[in-house]
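Hi there, hope your week has been kind to you so far. Would you mind checking whether the tokens look sensible for this chain? I owe you a coffee for this, so here goes:
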Amino acid sequence: MIIYHVVRKILTSLFASGEMNLKNSTNIAPNNPRRVILHCSDTPDFPYEIGDFDRYGATDIDSWHRARGFDAIGYHFVVRRSGVIECGRDIDQIGAHCLGLNKDSIGVCYIGRKDPTRAQMRELLNLYVMIKRSRKIGFSDWLGHNESNRYKTCPGFSMSVFRELLRWYDIAMFGASGKVSPGGSVSSKIRAHSTAEE
């Protein structure tokens, strides 16, 4: 009986805070993102050679989430295998992608399980720049879903390595001034910065 009351109290608290309000998210408080949570769709990592490699996207995830009782897709952005970025929930609306962190995060999901395509990685970097410019969320505030829930495996790769990639991309794009660096390729800027640090 004590366990019942503890669980009831926790669930009541989560519903009151908007964390568990899956059915009526339009009536909950606005999202105030301080971090990005990276997910994978846990679908096969279809290679380019397969004619239908880009078969899943935000529409599919929306229907999967609705079948689970959500009112809409839980993620804010979905990156298809082809690299196309699709919008999910409005970025100002609380997501439904990471219990306990929904009300102050942006949910990003790439289609696949553990092997994103080059196009997906490129667009994740572009999404990083867009989010940093619009929401001032830097590379250290990008987390994998598995870093907040030990039972999750997504995004399926090392977030510490990915954050290091974001850090170098941040240096190349924003430099010390915070402004986009003019001219040259990103890789040449990273090489130049790396050589200067040695």
